[in-house]
Amino acid sequence: PPVSAFDRRDGHLPQGVFASPHPSGTVTMPRKERKKLQAIVCVLFVELFERFTFFGIVCNMILFCTIKLGYSNYQAAMVNTCFVGASVLTPVLLGWLAETCFGRTTVLGFCALLHFFGTAMLPVVAFPFEDFYINTHNIVHQLEPHEQHILFYTGLVAVALGIGGIRAILCPLAAYHLQGCDRHQLLSFFNWFYWLVNLNSMVVFLGIAYIQQSVAKNLCFLIPFTSVLLALIAIHMVRNKLTFHPKKGSSLLTTFGVFLNSLKMCCLHYRHLSGDVANWLDRAKENNGGCYSETNVENVKILVKLFPLFGLQLLYRACITQIPSGYYLQTMHSNLKLNGFIWPVAVMKVISILPVLVLAPLLELLNTCYQSPKKILPSPATFITMGHACAALSALLAGISEIHRKDYPQVEQTLSGKVLQVSSMRCFQLTPQYILLGVAEAFVTPACSLISFCLTPSNLRGVSLHFLTLSYGGGCFLGAFLIQFLYFVSGGNFYPNNPSAGNMERFFFTLATLMAINTLVFWRISQRYTDLSVELSSGARQSHLSEKLLQYKTYLRFYDTVERSETLTSMETVL
């Protein structure tokens, strides 16, 4: 049964947190209950402010880089995608450092300071010094270009590291105690979890995008700076009481150790000592001359079966990053006026979020209806295949829309004080390609999380989700590499500074072709991930049985102190 995110796995309730009210209606220790409620509220606010800061930086990064810093379109797109990728990868690195080296409280405090420092640098870069500082000789005081670049990139790196520490320590998925949930409960949880994330981003893109683009102009990073102040206040209110303390021991280090030990044994040619083995990873076993137990090696072999899934998410994530890069530029050079009102460029991102907000409740309804044994819900692999197909179709429509966009006459349009020559085609004609990517996200992300969680032993589920996160971050960097590579190969024609003068549609058609091939490859291997059960060897079964016995012992010990509600829904667990 679901347990509160603040309950520790060693069986003891955290300091200041006591059990929920008894069924009889009596409430024990209300002061401690108030402290628990305060901690929950602070975590929710910290999560909100952190994502508010992240999306506030991302949503108009390209507009800022091209207009304020004078970057080319491909350079601005690469900066944005690399920042998104770094923000996805840093939670894995900083979470590992917190567990093995410096401690969670130290890393959290350091990352909070980095977050504050980074968001303080960005307003300095954006500040219009030329409008305020003119001396008696009418000389304008402003930052030199190289100084702007140093401050800008320093701020981005600091923010990415700060985001990683906050995400890894304050709100890890391990804190939700999903070990005892079945497939339907897990799918429901992941659907609602990503639904809340996208609801948050929709609010941010609606509010911040317009303020940054139309009101604040050059002060486009002032709101992220203000929001991180609120996040620091929330962290200070509860300090280390917000941190989740998992059990000791790093499964990530053990996993990498098995790989390195197996490679070492293969490279040193110890075949004559260990004999023939069925799998190269078996050389890491103690009975073959390695350093790891049979249980550890067998668990890692199960994890390796998910590597094709992780690898095929790279190109899909590169396709998703077109929303803040290629699609953003396409929208930016379209007509944003509607009834005399100039819509923010990032408002199209909201259109891609709407399918997620609509489909998540529908998928939850299907999940509820198909819980009977006579009805079989389509496998998560099927949802992933459909999502990849939607992503390929979206890139294809983007190429067709780009050809259609260039046929319209040019008009003048003012964005952040600069007059641009754009197509007179309405930006809302690009809606189908955004909707298709939104549908792809609604299908792929929860299904990948479900497969990664279910098809690995319980002690490696966190590692499996780490590898999935690494594939997401790697996909962002792959998207930046594709932009750079195709720009170089085409001499700037595939990613021109003026989309109306180049052939950006060829970039989208290339991406659509690669994504179609990626979809076919995953469809061919999807049968590997249809049955969501772990094929455990004898050693792994023994480990799994020991874990179950320890779980039951913990349940019996705290039978009178931890409330188990059979009617608690996954939506309530996420909240």
In brief, what are we looking at here?
The chain is mainly α and 575 residues long. Helix content is 64%, strand content 3%.
Task: Provide a descriptive summary of the structure in words.
The chain contains 19 helices and 4 strands. It has 575 residues and is an all-alpha fold. The radius of gyration is 26 Å and the shape is globular. Residues 1-24 and 535-575 have low confidence and may be disordered. Helix 4 (104-126) packs antiparallel against helix 7 (222-238). Helix content is 64%, strand content 3%. The protein has a two-stranded antiparallel sheet with strand order 1-2.
**Record field, number of beta strands:** 4
| Proportion of beta-strand residues | under 5%
Overall pLDDT metric: 75
Low-confidence stretches: 1-24, 535-575
Radius of gyration (CA) equals: 26 Å
Q: What is the rounded distance between the termini?
A: 16 Å
Strand order of the largest sheet: 1-2
The helix count comes to 19
**Fraction of residues in helix:** 55-70%
* Class by alpha and beta content: mainly alpha
Largest sheet: 2 strands, antiparallel
What is the overall shape? globular
Quaternary organisation of the protein chains: single chain
User: N-to-C SSE series?
Assistant: HHHHHHHHHHHHEEHHEEHHHHH
